[in-house]
Specification:
Layout: H1 4-21, H2 29-43, H3 49-71
Length: 74
């Protein structure tokens, strides 16, 4: 099983690779959407209740993005 720190390192590597591919953040949008589509698909694979949990997570993410826009911090 993957440990939290391994997953964090993998995400940090992907973020760096995205930046290396193109440092312009606006171009990252398609990749972020692709990631969310993959997670959405994965959420349906094991437990149908996970779909609702995924949608709840999206709502929390929406709030976090709103707060980021208002306060400048995560």
């Amino acid at each position: 099983m993957v440990k939290d720190y391994e997953l964090r390192a993998a995400i940090e590597k992907v973020a760096q690779e995205l930046y290396d591919y193109d440092p312009n953040p606006i171009t990252w949008l398609t990749w972020v959407i692709h990631l969310l589509k993959q997670l959405d698909s994965q959420s349906k694979n094991i437990d149908s209740a996970n779909q609702q949990r995924f949608e709840d997570m999206i709502a929390i993410l929406k709030d976090a993005i709103y707060n980021r826009q208002k306060t400048g911090g995560w």
